[in-house]
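Run log // design_07
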């Protein structure tokens, strides 16, 4: 099962990445994009993007490690094998993700959406989201065709500012002063 190639047609959601090797027994340090970060451990099989190919790896063991996680994967038994996975993306089939509540979204669903002010001004589009610590997410909004200026904005992803997310319409409505 370990290292088996995966059908590349499959829709895959990135949940984190391997940062580097941990110790000498093949463990890896994991940077998780999930909230809370331990949610990534709920998936017994991870897809790792090794040299552009998605391969399956079974999660053997895991534990918290500093501000991140450490994980042991089946078939990865020494430091060299673990180091070979440095900076590799960790994904799961999108179909394996739990259904979200109506007002919840996965970060990957927001990337590329247009960001509009309540008065209709186009501020740009979502380039990415990141965790600023303390459980706060921030949207990185960059210019796009028709945006009000060429400025990059960091907009907190909180209810008071993000008023509506319309995945079908491809936009996020925010109460955020364009001059800020």
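design_07 sequence
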């Amino acid at each position: 099962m370990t290292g088996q190639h995966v059908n590349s047609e499959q829709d895959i959601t990135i949940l984190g990445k391997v940062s580097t090797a941990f110790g000498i027994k093949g463990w890896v340090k994991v940077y998780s994009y999930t909230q809370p970060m331990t949610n990534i451990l709920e998936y017994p099989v991870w897809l790792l993007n090794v040299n552009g190919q998605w391969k399956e790896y079974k999660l053997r063991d895991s534990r918290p490690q500093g501000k991140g996680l450490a994980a042991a994967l089946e078939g990865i038994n020494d430091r060299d094998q673990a180091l070979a996975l440095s900076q590799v993306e960790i994904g799961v089939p999108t179909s394996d993700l739990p259904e979200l509540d109506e007002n919840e979204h996965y970060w990957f669903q927001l990337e590329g959406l247009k960001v509009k002010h309540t008065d209709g001004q186009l501020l740009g589009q979502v380039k990415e989201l990141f965790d600023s610590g303390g459980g706060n997410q921030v949207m990185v909004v960059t210019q796009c065709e028709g945006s009000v200026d060429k400025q990059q904005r960091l907009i907190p992803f909180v209810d008071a500012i993000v008023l509506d997310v319309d995945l079908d319409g491809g936009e996020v409505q925010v109460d955020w002063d364009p001059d800020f």
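The chain has two domains: 4-95, 107-174.
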